[in-house]
Design brief:
Blueprint lengths: L1 E5 L1 E7 L2 E9 L3 H14 L5 E7 L5 E3 L9 H10 L5 E8 L6 H18 L2 E4 L3 E8 L4 H10 L3 E7 L3 E8 L3 H11 L5 E2 L4
Antiparallel strand pairs: 1-7, 2-3, 3-6, 4-5, 4-6, 8-10, 8-11, 9-10
Amino acid sequence: MQEIMVPGEAEIEIRHSRFIGYLSKVASRADAQAALADIRARHPGARHVCWVLLAGGESGMHDDGEPAGTAARPIYLVLQHHALVNVLAVVVRYFGGVRLGAGGLVRAYTQATVAALGNARIEPVRAQSTLTLRSPFALEDRLRRYCARNGGEIVSADYGEAVVLSVRVAADEVPRYRQDLPDVFAGAVEFVDSP
């Protein structure tokens, strides 16, 4: 599986119709809807704004008035071929007055998506683990800075007798956290559970 790390955009012209492809990383349907609204606002005169969202259980696709199977499906097949996840692909079409036929539309939407992908940067998805760390209140800020510097993302914080942070890290970074934290914090930060 791969993710978009730097968004891609490209424009192609086929028989006077303009096709503008966009690829971006999204985490949810809400993120995708916001990105789609922004693209629609930038292209108020476009005839079609076709899209595919691959984001776990929130995936979807829409042909936006193009004949069924001629827009969203070709976009989807490009994303599948590259094993992309957490991605929104949009192709905007400005009609040029010449009908392309079903085969021509499939080729055009495929080419626009491939062109946008060529301008994006993709990387393999790294497996993730969640560490649960218990820290004295006095060390919370220092622990948060340590996590941020070392690729950790704080996903939750609970406050009781101590601070308990859930930290998402790349699975291959877990051994380093387990080795470094006891030394860096002189044993004051504890692992609550094992990934």
